[in-house]
Structure formats: C-alpha cells, structure tokens
Design a protein that fits this description.
CATH class: Alpha Beta
Structural class: alpha+beta
Radius of gyration: 28 Å
Number of strands: 10
Largest sheet: 5 strands, antiparallel
Number of domains: 1
Shape: globular
CATH architecture: Alpha-Beta Complex
Strand order of the largest sheet: 8-6-5-9-10
Helix content: 10-25%
CATH superfamily: PEBP-like
Strand content: 25-35%
CATH topology: Phosphatidylethanolamine-binding Protein
Low-confidence stretches: none
Number of helices: 4
Length: 201
C-alpha cells in the first residue's frame, strides 16, 4: 500500500512539473519608442534646392545666406535644446584639406526652423562658419556667424546636417567656435540624426 502511495505521489509530482515546464511565461510587450528623425522641405528627392546655396540670396561677400529649413520629430524625453552643424566633407580636396562648416547653431528650443531663420530669428545662437576664411580673412565675424550656404566649385557635393538633442542648454553666445559647442555637448547628447542632400556646382 505504501509503494502504491509513493508511485501515486510521484505521478502527481511528475505531472505537475511537466505542466509548469510547458506553461508559457507571461510576457509584457513594450512599445518601441520611435527614433528621432529630421526632414527638410528644402531637400527634394535628395537634392537641396537652389535658393539655399550659391544660386540664392548672397551677402556683400558673395556668401549664400538663405538658410535651409528643417523639422525634428520624435525627440527623446528630457530634450531641453537642439544643436546643429551643417558640413561639406566633399570640400576636403578643394578647401585645403578640411571639411567646410556651413552652419552651426545651438540652444534651439523648438522642433522646426523655417527657411531663412538664420537671418530672421533671434531665439537661438549661431557660430562661426568656414566662410570666415574667404576674402583673405577680411570677412567680419558678424557676417560669418550665420548660415553660409552651398557653393561647390568643382562637382555636386553631399551636405550633412547633423542635429543633436541635448539635455541642457549650452553656455554659448553668437560667434562661438564649433569646437566649443562640441566640448559642451559632451555627455549631454540624448539623440542625433544626420540629414543629407546634394547641391550641384
């Protein structure tokens, strides 16, 4: 009788263990948060429209000043400000061996800049661009601390707009240097996105 009880207990235990092992654990599905993206109405099918470069508005030094619009979507939680840098790596062979910086800006607190706001807006700060090296170095700091548009001399170039979502504002003023912006951004970048477009020579 004792042996039968033991066998019966073992059967029940085995059945219970088998049931537990086959049971599917309850899983909680978490919705993936969309990644930050940047778009521009000034880039059509990958091509930057004429008015944002040398075939657009120019200042007295011949620098294109009509800035590219862009819109930021799905910035991460905790974003306090945005910083941007527009560069042309294809300038390396024709600029003396460096990437050409067309625009730096920081402390942007809205998710969209409209076209030409480099000139018209006052709610963010802008840094020195590479156009300051033109005109024999005679271009004023005030004139170069804005958007300096595309003017590829040799071939179509690819331009990269780097947008950074930051957890703070930066301690910068108009006319800041790009390296100062990147130093202050270190450790405070929540997300970044690079938008590319070409401009013909």
């Amino acid at each position: 009788m004792k042996n039968i009880s033991k066998i019966f207990a073992l059967v029940i235990l085995s059945t219970l263990l088998f049931t537990i092992s086959c049971a599917k654990p309850e899983t909680k599905t978490m919705e993936a948060k969309p990644m930050m993206t940047v778009t521009s109405s000034g880039i059509v099918n990958g091509v930057i429209q004429d008015k944002y470069g040398k075939r657009g508005e120019l200042n007295s030094h011949g620098m294109p000043t009509y800035s590219l619009p862009f819109k930021i979507e799905n910035a991460p939680e905790g974003t306090v400000s945005f910083a941007i840098m527009l560069e042309d790596k294809d300038a390396f062979p024709v600029s003396g061996g460096f990437s050409w910086v067309h625009w730096t800006a920081a402390n942007i607190t809205r998710d969209e800049l409209r076209e030409n706001e480099s000139i018209s807006a006052t709610d963010f700060v802008q840094g020195v661009n590479s156009w300051t090296s033109m005109q024999g170095g005679q271009q004023s700091k005030e004139m170069s601390s804005y958007y300096g548009g595309m003017a590829p001399p040799d071939a179509p170039h690819i331009y990269e707009l780097h947008v950074y979502a930051l957890d703070k504002k930066l301690n910068l003023e108009n006319g800041f240097l790009m390296n100062d912006m990147y130093k202050q951004m270190d450790g405070h970048v929540l997300a970044e996105y690079t938008l590319k477009g070409t401009y013909d020579n």
